[in-house]
């Protein structure tokens, strides 16, 4: 029977995610030579080649992908075992590390922490603010236990990424930000399609860019990106100056003099705030309790 080494399998999985030995070494705080040596040893233990040359880089062999398919089941089972052991040893206690993007912290995480202080004082939450696009990297690396990110649509039960279990916490409505003197600032029955010819302000990449583009395309047009920004202070300052319009999540609760926030009577675009945990970890008492309080907070944001 082949010898399966969990640590080496984790290195192989990280290489599959990061793409290069150098990036894998950086993510795991190892040297590139140590990564190569560990993977070479794993190939000898399993008796199959795991890497092959591809130009100046390496890529995973078909055997490596087969190994990873089975390894994911092993990782999920180990997460379940850890969760059950923690519940046995500590009951409703323990520390849960939550990675969340900026607007999710005050709207979801802080209310959840407040609720836990009285309902489950043995559970502590450590918060790490992280961009939505970074959340899954932190989760995969084991640096957070729960990751909050953004998606255009709610995750499907048949999600292709077998490493995580995902759920939508809240479908956050998006309002449109207009300068106060905009001709449509007070228009009745405002639709997203009415703004098809406007210059738009949104991030250059990542989930928020995808959400803005998807909302506009769903309304029948492709937005002209006049300016790129990711912070709400910068975005609303440009809207106030008449440089463009923007979609703003209701959950962000940002306001600025000189900017009118308009709900849309039709189209009603939304962004989904998604909670993710490593497969098998949701059964842990502490993690499950944190997820429950995050759901409650989400229901309060958008009933």
Would you write up a description of this structure?
- The protein is of the alpha/beta class.
- The chain contains 9 helices and 11 strands.
- Strands 3, 4, 5, 6, 9, 10 and 11 form a 7-stranded mixed sheet that branches. The chain has a two-stranded antiparallel sheet with strand order 1-2.
Could you give a quick summary of the protein structure above?
With 303 residues, the chain is α/β, with parallel strands linked by helices. It has helices at 6-18, 21-28, 32-46, 62-90, 104-119, 135-140, 207-218, 232-240, 285-301, and strands at 51-54, 57-60, 94-100, 123-129, 146-151, 164-179, 199-201, 224-227, 246-249, 259-262, 270-278.
List the helices and strands and how they pair.
Layout: H1 6-18, H2 21-28, H3 32-46, E1 51-54, E2 57-60, H4 62-90, E3 94-100, H5 104-119, E4 123-129, H6 135-140, E5 146-151, E6 164-179, E7 199-201, H7 207-218, E8 224-227, H8 232-240, E9 246-249, E10 259-262, E11 270-278, H9 285-301
Number of helices: 9
Mean pLDDT across all amino acids:
87
- The total of beta strands comes to 11
Indicate the proportion of strand residues: 15-25%
Key traits:
303 residues, alpha/beta, seven-stranded mixed beta sheet, two-stranded antiparallel ribbon, globular
């Amino acid at each position: 029977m082949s010898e399966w080494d969990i640590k080496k399998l984790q290195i192989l999985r990280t290489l599959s995610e990061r793409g290069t030995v150098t990036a894998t070494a950086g993510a795991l705080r190892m040297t590139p030579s140590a990564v190569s040596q560990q993977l070479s040893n794993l190939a000898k233990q399993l008796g199959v080649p795991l890497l092959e040359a591809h130009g100046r880089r390496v890529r995973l062999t078909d055997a490596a992908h087969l190994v990873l398919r089975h390894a994911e089941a092993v990782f999920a089972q180990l997460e379940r075992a850890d969760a059950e052991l923690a519940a046995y040893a500590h009951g409703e206690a323990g520390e849960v590390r939550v990675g969340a993007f900026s607007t999710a912290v005050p709207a979801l995480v802080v209310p959840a922490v407040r609720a836990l202080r009285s309902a489950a004082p043995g559970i502590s939450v450590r918060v790490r603010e992280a961009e939505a696009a970074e959340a899954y990297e932190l989760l995969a690396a084991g640096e957070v236990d729960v990751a909050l990110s953004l998606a255009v649509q709610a995750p499907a039960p048949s999600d292709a990424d077998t490493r995580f279990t995902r759920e939508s916490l809240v479908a956050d409505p998006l309002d449109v930000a207009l300068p106060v003197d905009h001709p449509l600032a007070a228009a009745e029955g405002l639709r997203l399609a009415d703004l098809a010819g406007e210059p738009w302000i949104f991030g250059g990449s990542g989930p928020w860019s995808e959400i803005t583009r998807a909302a506009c395309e769903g309304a029948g047009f492709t937005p002209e990106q006049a300016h790129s920004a990711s912070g709400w202070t910068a975005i609303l300052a440009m809207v106030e100056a008449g440089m463009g319009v923007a979609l703003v999540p209701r959950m962000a609760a940002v306001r600025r003099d000189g900017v009118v926030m308009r709900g849309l009577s039709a189209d009603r675009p939304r962004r989904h705030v998604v909670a993710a945990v490593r497969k098998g970890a949701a059964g842990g008492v502490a993690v499950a309790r944190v997820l429950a309080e995050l759901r409650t907070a989400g229901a309060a944001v958008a009933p």
